Amino acid sequence: MRSVKSLATAAEAGRHQREWFADLRRRVAAGEPFALLNADVPHEIFRTMDIPYAVSQWWASLVAAKQRSQHYLELVRQRGYPDYSEQYNSVTLGSAFDPEPEAGPWGGLPKPDIVVGDVTGDITRKIFDIRGHEPGVTFYPLESAAENEVPVNWWELMPHRWEQAIGPARLDLLTAELENLVRFLETTTGRRFSESRFREVMALVDEQEEWNRKTRDLIARTRPAPLGVVDSIPSVMLPQWHRGTEWARDIAKRFYEEVRDRVETGQAACPGERARLMWIGRGLWYDMGFYQRFQDEYGAVFVWSMYLAIAADGYIRYGDDPMRALAARFAAFGDQLYTPPWSSEWYVKEARLHGIDGVVHLVSDDPRGSYFTARALEAAGFPVIEIHADNVDARTFGDEVVKRVGQWLENVVLA
């Protein structure tokens, strides 16, 4: 029972990412402005203005995959900052302290001129504040608003009725902030913001995510699963960092076609599939083989991760006002993944859609409603096991985790 690990789209995405990063380093070395963005920041503005950018969490995932997290966390600790909190962003912060940055993965992350982050919590804000204190670096924060009224089945409302789902007050605030961000970028970089180009970028993102939605639905209804999360994550997440480009739109389409072909020819990640598992939390970047172990030993396939699912339900926004639609894409993004009942109801919906038999829940240092997520799934009849670890800090993850999950599979899920 072996993993697919042969998707052409995953291989192409990996090649493209390396080529893109090499080109980014060349552009920055030639004097172009460079922005470092948090994952929940509207990248579409930077795409429209052709400002080179990288994503903090993507860089941390690459560092973790190259087993370099401890080096950067040690640099954070040497500066007197905690190395055990919000490691997903702290790892990237550590790269700013490296006396030999070119020794980092793929030649190292260039020093940014602009850092943009949404202030979803005190820790995240402080990490980006530190970046803003570096000479020549400007930190541009975006506020994170909340709403007392939570829509029922928000995933059904978001594509067209996002104003109803999110509420006008939150949209007013973020729309104004994004307009101010555009003015700031025009002033500091000399680049111009084109409304027509912006509409093209927004349309390409919607097309890309429509293909991801078709892929998500196809995997959900296929027994046995045509592929597991080890194979789906790179095919969906690497293109997500390039959304708003024709390449990202086209590879999302090819990803769907590749999965469809596997379904039509009867190919499966695990032909002897005995259980379908859900992985809630960020990818375990330093040990992606974790997911494969249980497929090989127990016939338990991780068919679900948040990456393809949120691409399907969390990004599509249609409307005549592209800036307000972009605000709608991100005003409640954190809620969709982490804030109950937004998140907990969505996870239950996804578990039912995919025919999940058991849920493995990664609870990091910043759990953001993890207790309510687990309780909602259990109340809906889905057995849950919680893993308390960090997805880029291997110190928090030991062999006993694998043993615990195996025992849970034997005694609860497969029993």
TrEMBL record:
<dbReference type="Pfam" id="PF06050">
    <property type="entry name" value="HGD-D"/>
</dbReference>
<comment type="similarity">
    <text>Belongs to the FldB/FldC dehydratase alpha/beta subunit family.</text>
</comment>
<protein>
    <submittedName>
        <fullName>2-hydroxyacyl-CoA dehydratase family protein</fullName>
    </submittedName>
</protein>
<dbReference type="InterPro" id="IPR010327">
    <property type="entry name" value="FldB/FldC_alpha/beta"/>
</dbReference>
